[in-house]
Amino acid sequence: MGTPGEGLGRCSHALIRGVPESLASGEGAAAGLPALDLAKAQREHGVLGGKLRQRLGLQLVELPPEESLPLGPLLGDTAVIQGDTALITRPWSPARRPEVDGVRKALQDLGLRIVEMGDENATLDGTDVLFTGREFFVGLSKWTNHRGAEIVADTFRDFAVSTVPVTSSSHLRGLCGMGGPRTVVAGSSEAAQKAVRDRQLEHRGTGTINIVFRGFTKFSAAAAAAAKSLQSCPTLCDPIDGSPPGSPVPGILQAMAVLTDHPYASLTLPDDAAADCLFLRPGQPGLPPFLLHRGGGDLPNSQEALQKLSDVTLVPVSCSELEKAGAGLSSLCLVLSTRPHN
Question: What integer pLDDT is reported at residue 264 of this predicted model?
Fold first, then answer.
């Protein structure tokens, strides 16, 4: 067994889906999308695929664009992947639910174990799920409800799963991400900084306890472990963004600190969207990790702050045009490993 969190970012393959003309056409407008430059969006998508394949050395699987699925390129919303298991999500928007079909088949072809969400009352977008290498955090947002979070907990029983309410129009991954196995990065907006203090204990059936912190819920497989976490809620390590030791961390990070049993360092970025990054470790263990992040002219105020992540090789990529369609970096690809890592 390795140390906790070392499995974060292990990957051999990346899955993306091409940008259809409908993203910028009348069909896209009917889906409520703003006008965008299709050629620029396709160039950005092509550069992303090139960096995944050439810079990171991943096997790239590219699904063809489907004109009936204008938001098809945002396939990060269609699955939650950990190890050899892929939970196929149930997007909040009924118009987006057909997007999962092609993704399901591709992941099956790559040998992953597929888990379906059979509950019609559940909604879940994959970019509302943050995996830290040790545990899952699920954002309760416009797109993801509590039942969806419960299914994440039921699927990945080897990991703690906690919920974090998202009060902005973003998904959770649009507010925070992992800058490394022990480092959480988050934006500096009011939504990302909302403080969490109150807490109470709520029972949910035999042998399971939910700890609710003013809307934040921790699913625990063992009641004793849940009760223990109530008695001693650890905090994140001191921020690494230049703020004094012991300074309050942003609210999303503070919420995670209350819920977690693991210490994390924190880095606050000027731009929320810059926190939507991907920590990736392609190849065999021991090779240097990468951080795929917004760059290429995007979000310049956050670039200097990201330089503080000295243990990763920064790989910038632009998605400013795709962002007009609601795309964040984590929504544009799914990464997975088809080979074991010791």
Answer: 84
